[in-house]
Amino acid sequence: MSEPQIQLHRAGQRFLTQTDRVTSHQLFSFGEHYDPDNVGFGSLMVSNDEVVRPGPGYDDHPHADAEIITWVLSGSLVHEDSQGNTGLVYPGLAQRMSAGSGIVHAERNDAYRIDPTRPVEPVHLVQMWVRPDAPGAAPSYEQRELDLTALARQWVPVASGADPDAVVSLASVGSTLWATHVNEGVSRPLPADGLGHLYVASGQVEVESVGVLATGDSLRLRDAAGLRVSGTDAEAEVLLWEMTL
Question: Which residues contact 108 (CB under 8 A, 6 or more apart)?
C-alpha cells in the first residue's frame, strides 16, 4: 500500500479578489491571479469561496467545457442562463451546470425581489469547476435538494460522474464531490481513493497525519483513503473531491 501524499494549503495562501459586490477567495489560479504551479488539481480546475452582497452579483457571462457545481453555505443565489434554465440555490440544494459547447448565465443575490419573505443578506457559497471527459457537449443544467441532516451522519455524494446515489450527475466519470458535517467527538475516514481535494468550508477539524485545519484550509491528497477527519469543536462542514488518477 502506498504512503499517502499530502499537501497542506492554509486559508491565507488563497488568492483574493474583492469588489464592491463580491469577496472571492480562490484556491487555484483564476482571473487576474496566475501561478503556473497552481492551475488546478486533478480534474478540479476552480474552487472559489465567495461572499456575494445583496444586489446584482454576477451579470451575464459565458462559460464553456466546465462542469460547474455551486454549493451554498448560507443565503440564496438566483440562477438564469441562456438555455432558459432558472433556479434558486440555497443550503440543501445541489446545482450543476454543464457549460459544454457554450452557455451564458447570471448569478444574482436578489431572491428577495422574487420572494419578499426572503431576507436581504449576503450569500456565502463555494463554486467548483471540474473538467468534463469530452469537450463540446450540449449544455445542460440540474438542481436537486438533499437531506441536510444526512451530512451529520456520513459523507454524502453531492455530484458524481459514476456514483448512482449522487444528488446530481457530472460529465466527468472519475470525479465525485462528497460533503459532510463533523461535530466534536465525531470521526470519519476519507472516502477518496486516488486523488483527493479536501476543503474546510466552515469550522475546524483535525485530520490524521496532518493536524488541525480551520475554515479555508485545504489538502491535496494522493492515496489517502482511510485517513480520518475528526471534529474538534462546533460543527464543521467539509467538502471533498475524489478523483481518479
Answer: 55, 56, 57, 58, 59, 77, 78, 80
- Main-chain dihedrals φ then ψ at residue 114, nearest 5 degrees: -85, -40
Q: Are 110 and 52 in contact (CB under 8 A)?
A: no
pLDDT single digits (tens) 100-159: 999 999 999 999 888 888 899 999 999 999 999 999 999 999 999 999 999 999 999 999
Is the pTM for the entire model greater than 0.85?
A: yes
3-state secondary structure of 148: helix
Closest of 44, 51, 223 to residue 126, by C-alpha: 51
Q: How do strand 204-207 and strand 15-18 relate by DSSP bridges?
A: unpaired
pLDDT of residue 94: 97
CB distance 182 to 228 below 8 Å: no
Q: Phi and psi of 140, rounded to 5°?
A: -155, 170
Set of cell numbers at residue 166: 449522487
At residue 13, φ and ψ (nearest 5 deg) are -85, -5
Spell out the residues 6+ positions from residue 142 whose beta carbon is closer than 8 angstroms to its own: 95, 96, 168, 169
